[in-house]
Design brief:
The protein is an alpha+beta fold and 104 residues long. The chain is built from three helices and three strands; from the N terminus they run H-H-E-E-H-E. The chain is rod-shaped.
Length: 104
């Protein structure tokens, strides 16, 4: 009987704990992993791009919405990167806060 009570208490505690985790951030564990995966894939796209690999571009992903901030060398580079990031599975939108870096 003690084992049943202990198991029930642990089960209730576990469910409460995991439910609380989802409500604190507004994301479930799966959504967090998906956002991290999207960010990693977006960073890989930037590093592989011959015109952007040495530029400072920050990628922030929240619930599938990607925001890019930093600098690019041209509007064409910006458009190409945004287009490739839109193709990543799970991406809902891509917003650019990128600025074109002036050539000296």
């Amino acid at each position: 009987m003690k084992n049943v009570v202990l198991l029930t208490v642990l089960l209730i505690f576990g469910l409460t704990f995991f439910a609380g985790c989802a409500t604190m951030t507004g994301e479930t564990a799966g959504e967090k992993i998906d956002d991290s995966s999207i960010t990693t894939q977006a960073n890989a796209i930037i590093v592989k791009d011959p015109d952007a690999q040495y530029l400072k571009i920050d990628v922030d992903t929240r619930q599938g919405d990607v925001v890019l901030a930093g600098f690019v060398n041209s509007k064409e580079t910006e458009a190409r990167i945004m287009g490739k990031i839109r193709e990543i599975r799970g991406v809902k939108s891509v917003k650019s806060l990128l600025k074109v870096e002036e050539k000296k």
